[in-house]
C-alpha cells in the first residue's frame, strides 16, 4: 500500500491542503524528499488559491480583484453589482438566510460569463464582474442578463415572500481597470436612484439606464 493509500483510507477524508501536508510529512520521515517536495508544492498552490477566494461564496475576493485589474487591458468592462435592500433581507429573514442569498447570487452572476471574465466579491453585498475583450453592447448584454437571472430566480423556494434584485453600474471604454471600477461605482448609484433592479451605463457620454422589461 502506498503512502497516499495509507492516508486516503478513513471514514472522513481531510481537506486537500491538510492531505498534501500529511503526505509530505510521511514521505519526509521515510527520506523520500522528492515526493515530499512535490506534495508541499501542491499544498502551497492550494493555500495560495484559497487566499484569493471568498470563503462564503467561493467567488474570487477583493484581493484577487485588486491584483488582476491593473494587469488587464484598457478595453476592459467592469460591472459593479449591489443587492437591492439587502439589509432588509437580513433583518426580516436572518443572517443565515442572507448568507444563502449571497451564495446564490454569486452563482447566478457567474453563469454564462464570457471566456476570461470573472466574478469577485467586492465587499459585503457587492460583487464585481470583470469582462475583458468585450465590446460595449456585449458588456451591456452580459450585465443585463445577470440582472434578469437574479430577478427571475425562484427566491420564494428559499423562503415564502422573499424577493431579490440587483442594481448594476457598468463602465466600458478607455482607462485602466481600477479607473473603470471607480466609474462603475458612480454608475451604480445612478441605477439605485433610477429605482433599483436596473443597469446604468454611459452611452455617448450620457448616463443611460436600462429598465427591466418584466
UniProtKB/TrEMBL annotation:
GO biological process: cell adhesion involved in single-species biofilm formation; negative regulation of bacterial-type flagellum-dependent cell motility
A single Gene Ontology CC term: plasma membrane
Record Pfam families: GGDEF
Molecular functions (GO terms): diguanylate cyclase activity
Alphabetical list of InterPro entries matching this protein: Diguanylate_Cyclase, GGDEF_dom, Nucleotide_cyclase, Rev_trsase/Diguanyl_cyclase
CDD domains given in the database record: GGDEF
SMART domains xref list: GGDEF (SM00267)
UniProt domain GGDEF: residue ranges: 74-204
Protein name: Diguanylate cyclase (GGDEF)-like protein
Organism whose genome encodes this protein: Amycolatopsis echigonensis
Biological classification of the source: Bacteria, Bacillati, Actinomycetota, Actinomycetes, Pseudonocardiales
Amino acid at each position: 500500500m502506498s503512502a497516499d493509500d495509507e492516508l486516503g483510507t478513513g471514514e472522513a477524508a481531510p481537506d486537500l491542503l491538510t492531505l498534501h501536508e500529511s503526505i509530505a510529512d510521511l514521505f519526509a520521515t521515510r527520506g523520500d524528499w522528492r515526493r515530499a517536495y512535490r506534495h508541499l508544492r501542491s499544498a502551497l498552490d492550494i493555500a495560495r488559491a484559497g487566499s484569493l477566494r471568498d470563503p462564503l461564496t467561493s467567488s474570487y475576493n477583493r484581493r484577487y480583484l485588486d491584483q488582476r485589474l491593473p494587469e488587464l487591458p484598457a478595453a476592459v468592462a467592469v460591472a459593479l453589482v449591489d443587492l437591492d435592500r439587502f439589509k432588509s433581507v437580513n433583518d426580516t429573514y436572518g443572517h443565515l438566510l442572507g448568507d444563502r442569498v449571497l451564495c446564490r447570487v454569486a452563482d447566478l452572476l457567474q453563469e454564462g460569463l464570457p471566456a476570461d471574465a470573472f466574478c469577485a466579491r467586492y465587499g459585503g453585498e457587492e460583487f464585481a464582474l470583470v469582462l475583458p475583450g468585450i465590446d460595449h453592447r456585449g458588456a451591456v448584454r452580459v450585465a443585463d442578463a445577470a440582472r434578469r437571472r437574479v430577478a427571475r430566480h425562484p427566491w420564494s423556494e428559499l423562503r415564502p415572500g422573499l424577493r431579490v434584485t440587483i442594481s448594476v453600474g457598468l463602465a466600458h471604454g478607455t482607462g485602466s481597470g481600477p479607473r473603470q471600477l471607480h466609474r462603475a461605482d458612480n454608475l451604480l448609484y445612478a441605477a439605485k436612484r433610477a429605482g433599483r433592479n436596473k443597469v446604468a451605463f454611459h452611452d455617448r457620454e450620457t448616463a443611460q439606464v436600462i429598465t427591466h422589461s418584466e
